[in-house]
Amino acid sequence: MLGNVVVGQSGGPTAVINSSVAGVYVQAKKMGAPKVFGMVHGIEGFLDGKLCDLDNYLSDSIGIELLRRTPSAFLGTCRYKMPPIEGHEDVYEKVIRVMEENDIEVMFYIGGNDSMDTVKMLSDYATSKGKKQRFIGVPKTIDNDLPITDHCPGYGSAAKYIATSLKEIIRDNESFGAKKPTVVVVEIMGRHAGWLTAAAALAKSEDCTGVDAIYLPEVDFDFDAFMAKVEELAATRHSVVIAVSEGIHLADGTFVCEVGSGDAAVDAFGHKQLSGSASYLARMIAGKTGLKTRAIEFSTLQRAASHIASKTDADDAYHSGRAAVNAAAEGKTGDMVVLKRISSDPYLCGTDIYDIHEIANVERKVPVEWITEDGCGLKQAFIDYARPLIQGEILPVFVDGTPRHLVMKELFD
User: Fold this and answer.
1) How many domains is the chain built from?
2) Burial of 162 (0-12, 13-18, 19+ CB in 10 A)
3) Of these residues, 114, 117, 143, 315, which one is catalytic?
4) Residue 211 maps to a domain
5) 347-355 and 335-344: which strand pairing?
């Protein structure tokens, strides 16, 4: 028997993050939770006592299925950094107080690296003070950079969008019969880990030649080598499409986007806001070669495109939410759900629980052995890893020609 619980979402949304909320809700109700609350705008809203009763939205299968087909964070998200415990115990006591006022036994927090740090600190504080409240992390990030877990819910759908969009861009660029190729540079999210940009390799198939070069932040970027590659491709192809991570950087750590536009702004966690690499490189190519260029930045579409979400990804997100509730029912705290791949062909994946202290603030990058020796491509090992994650579709419910979404009114009160 489980008491009242609360679930929150944090950081950048994904196309399937709401499937984890659905998983938490369904399993918590199955375990006898009288109330399943939702945080309105994550821990930041929770500190202000902003909660909603999920029974108002998810009490039937229609609401749950619509939620699973709704992109972004249904509950609202935030990028709030919890302060150090020492000297800020009042903030942690406020979290405990809101939980006590609502008879909340367990908090489930869905997010990435920074969100897992929040789970760690809240759990550490509650444990050190002998509090009964418990905290469980549910993985989420399109960046796929959480350690221990085989992959992160959210990544498969973003990878599917990237591969699909690049196939369409390649088809478009190949349709022109100009004597000199148009060089298209596509910028994909990824600050230090290149998992998303690596997904460009999935565009290659029987009906598509694939992108011509892929540049990840795991490999130092070299302008001269890049231009030599462009000139080589332009001399032999009538279409050139290149994928670059927003986080590509020089050997001294300077981001390419900083070279093009100066210092980048930072968020609450000190992360630089990166964009502009594709635009800068496209201008550089045009200036040095005279070739026609085009820069494309996928930006928010990578995480918001629920119309092409991976069913495998949505199911993994849902099962992660359910596994978190099962862990809570066993009395766990200070842990995160991890995905454990059993088989890639056919794809089978289970869940486990892992100590949050081994996960929070640790970033997993694309293994260098999966990157080609010239630094601008991916080997078959990556394809074998990523291809199963983009399989299947979970289609939206269309009304009057556009997708119908489940919207929480408390976000706008």
Assistant:
1) 2
2) buried
3) 143
4) yes
5) antiparallel
Reported confidence tier of residue 272, pLDDT bands at 50, 70, 90:
low
Show which of 254, 287, 304 is a domain's final residue: 304
In a domain, 95, yes or no: yes
Catalytic residue check, 263: no
Q: How far apart are CA 338 and CA 148, in angstroms?
A: 7
pLDDT digits (tens, 9 = 90+) for 61-86: 999 999 999 999 999 999 999 999 99
Lowest mean pLDDT among 257-261, 263-267, 335-339, 351-355: 263-267
Q: In CATH, what number is assigned to the domain containing residue 48?
A: 3.40.50.450
Asked if 97 and 228 sit in the same domain, the reply is: no
- Return d(Cα 151, Cα 59) in angstroms, integer: 30
The helix (run of H) or strand (run of E) holding residue 403 is strand 402-404
Tokens of 146: 């959480």
Residues 272 and 255 in one domain: yes
Residue type for position 305: A
pLDDT at 200: 98
Domain membership of residue 318 as a residue range: 4-141+306-362+392-412
Claim to verify: residue 246 and residue 176 sit in the same structural domain = yes
pLDDT tens-digit map of 293-345 = 999 999 999 999 999 999 999 999 999 999 999 999 999 999 999 999 999 99
Write the pLDDT tens digit of every residue in 193-217: 999 999 999 999 999 999 999 999 9
228: Cα separation from own chain's centroid: 33
- Are the C-beta atoms of 91 and 83 separated by less than 8 Å? yes
